[in-house]
Design a protein that fits this description.
Largest sheet: none
Mean pLDDT: 84
CATH class of one domain: Mainly Alpha
Low-confidence stretches: 386-403
Distance between the termini: 118 Å
Structural class: mainly alpha
CATH architecture of one domain: Alpha Horseshoe
Strand content: under 5%
CATH superfamily of one domain: Leucine-rich Repeat Variant
Amino acid sequence: MAFDFEKFQRFGPAAFVLKAILAAVAADIILLGCILLRRGYRRWYFARRDARVIEIRQQWDALIRGEIPFEAWRNNRRDCQIVESMALDAFELAGSAESAQILKFLRTSGLIAKCTFEARRHQGWRRREALIALGRTRAPEAIPPLTEALRDRDAETRLAALRGLERMACPEAAREILNWISESGLTVPALPVQSALIQCCAERPQILISHLQHTEGPVREVLARVLGEVATPALQTSLLQFVDDELPELRAAAARALSQSQPQIAIASLTELSQDPIWFVRLRAIVSLGELRNPSAVSILLRGLTDSKRLVRVRAAEALLKIGSDHAAMFEEVSALNDRYGLDAFLTAIDNAGLVGTIQQELSQLPPSARKDTLLEILTAKSLPTAILMPELAASAKAASAL
């Protein structure tokens, strides 16, 4: 050893560099060995796991029926994870009879109790996985631990609990989410809350009404968007109270929801909303009028063609095509507005719907007239003639040609 050390001393300051190089090479060899060892272990582990999955799959029907003792797999952590994952996957794709059998298996085998314990006792990623697994079971007893996790200090845990309740997709889960955001406000991003409430309130949307009447700020905006997605014709009377609401999101939600109401009730409110100062409220009202397909809404939609927002004009044009079967007569009414932007929106709509040839054929069957020629010229050029757009300029040109 002393001899080797003396050899290094001959290099002088370069000995430190040489030692560093040798140390780096040794570290690289050790690191490469660890990587290869880890890869080999993972290959061996997953090969054994896949083989065990095949074995369990072959005995799956007997396992679900309870013919195989639970102790045969519950005491093995790997087998327990495999059975839990396979049962939850099968539960989401099963029919009503099979899902009832799988849910009974999850209860009697203690897997739901296991997930509940992990959701309440563990922390970090293990708790979050348990919360999502509880939601996938859709069992009523999973709601209390998920509700407790909604009030956790960790934001990731709150999001996992929210995703779990979203998987439940039941009014009871919606009620817990609504109570939570009413107490705490939006402590997570608004989009996950909105998505969860849409899933959970679809069966009973009326539970949103009372909360809308007692909440304010961002929470009320989220509830308004959810109401617009899940509202049904049964809520048409309750929705009328929001037509004059000070929150634009809620007025827009009411306009969207009224598309499923009776025309006798909805058209008067949608007429008012189509003149709202906020453009997206007018947009929702115009789209809803088109969904109603009522001829009495034609005059309102024609006014929508003159809106200052292009998207509103385009949706008004599409709605007019839905309502009217005589497209040539509708085209004549639109051109009579002498509004180049409205006409452009209508021409875009008939082009997208593939009705240009149909309207040309309907116009060609009309008796010869100057109006017919003008309409065919508009349809061919896809714009208003100069004589209509700028009558003063056309008159001046005509006078000059006469001189």
